[in-house]
Design goal:
With 70 residues, the chain is mainly β. 14% of the residues lie in helices and 47% in strands. It is built from one helix and five strands; from the N terminus they run ββββαβ. It has a three-stranded antiparallel β-sheet. It has a two-stranded antiparallel ribbon with strand order 2-3. The longest helix has 10 residues. It is elongated and about 50 Å long. The two termini are 15 Å apart.
């Protein structure tokens, strides 16, 4: 089985920064959701959604990528 990481992007993963003019601007960020062992990306997504710290989160868009550990 392979190792995968999940990263949330989109409207549910953002912060606001104060600009030099004093206004706050929204930026799109990536939030690390966790690392799991799975057979494929779909299984990895389901496992990441079930991690304790992710159970009550609403996801906009999740990127799942296989990682290579050296």
């Amino acid at each position: 089985m392979e190792q995968y990481i999940g990263i949330e992007i989109g409207d549910s993963a953002y912060t606001e920064f104060m600009m030099k003019d004093g206004e706050f601007k929204q930026t799109e960020d990536g939030v690390f959701l966790g690392r799991v062992t799975a057979r494929n990306k779909q299984e990895a997504l389901e496992k990441i959604k079930c991690l304790g710290w992710n159970k009550n989160r609403v996801f906009d868009e999740v990127i799942i990528e296989e990682i290579c550990l050296r």
